[in-house]
What does this fold into?
Amino acid sequence: MNSAYSKPALFLFNLEGILGKETFNRILKRYFQEFKFTHPTSEDFMNICEEESGQDVRFFFSQFLHKTDFCDWAVKSVKNNRIEIENKGTWQIPVDVFVEAETGARVFRIDGSRKIDTIILPEASGHVRKVTIDPYGCSIEPNHWNNYYPRKIEIKPILSLPSFDAYKIFYLPYLWYGSYDGITFGLYLFGAQFIDFDYVRGRHEWTFGSIYGIRSKKVYPVFMYQTPVSFKRGMRTRMRVMGSNAQDEDKLGAGLIYNFGIPFSCGPQGEFKTMLSYYNLNSYNSVDSLDWDIGRIIVFENHFAYNYEGWQLNLGLSLTDNMIGSEWSYVKMTAGVQKEIKTLIPFTTRLFVGKVFGNAPSQEQLFLSGALRISVLTSLLFGQKGYFSPQEHINIPGHGNMRGYQTLHIKSDKLYCVNLEFPSRSLIRFFVDFGYYGDYAFDIGASIVLGPLSFNFPFYTRTDEPWKFRWSIGF
It folds into this structure.
């Protein structure tokens, strides 16, 4: 569908830019008059293009119709009055180049027959101030970021859209209040060449920021860098480096992310992430001592996610040992399978199995009510301690995900759970969960789901206080 409609539209737009708007309009009018209510061929359209423009366009049509070539124009270098323009692709098409010097501006036409074209300005023109390839936006190319000298950089607020031709830096001011830090304020910066996520290819995506707690007098920095290493059809590889100090825990990590599958297809999609991570919790000031142990963890973390025909599979394997500098030695294995069943009343079923071997700290155990570590987005609003924290009234989907057991802080080195939720994809959903963590667990409740948020209200929980009112907000 994309090749049949989108590509021809882009091709005709590019053809208009090469031949000129006036010439292209004559071509379309004549083509309509001569072939209306008939069945013309590509040859008919090419003949009219050549007759009206006086140019040979067959090489252009040939590359479009019979090949998968592409062009990628780039400003290779600008030295004094010498400008080198490179086509990093294989599609040979003309392009306009706008050049602004001290004495004025001019548009040059490059015929595209060479890999590198050189534009030399007279010395009287002065220094080159600006170069723009394809100033009218007619060229078919996947990469517009290298069409400029100097490179385009834009600074915008966080809610702005990404750009196809400028390296954007987004800023997010931060102001919040926490029980330990008091008023916290700071600034986060996000930079990227477009968006770098799964099948969307960006480059040099980074995050850097810091916040300051007035009461605690502590600074919490964060950084992250990610960029593609390999990007091929059906297989994408990225490297990622990150670090932060949040909730008085030092975090460092480096690793690779592999994504496979053809986007928007019916085939399988998957992701494998492998990281070497360092965690060092320095105090209990910002975390709940029921769920955390102070100390250093150096761990290999591996996660595999697979989706196919509605089935979702998630596998996890974490390994650490005293030999690599960790204060604990353990192996943690998890597996989760989820499927939406479309019946008269559609429902979602999930099975989770987990086991920890060896000596693991509390934060690396398996939690009955949901995961413990909060995401980056959630950490901007909530911490790991207090009324609004995981295991209290914030539910992070994962592990046992038995929402009736929020506030009980139940964790174990083994966990087996079955989660049922119905009707799927509705505003109000009911959940029924069964689990075993060394003792049996069971709960029934309802959720109000608003996009990524859910408000959970258990009716019954198999505990000493089965009918006690509990609630949580899910992210």
Notes: The chain has five helices and 27 strands. The first helix runs from residue 2 to 19. The mean pLDDT is 90. Residues 158-264 form one domain.
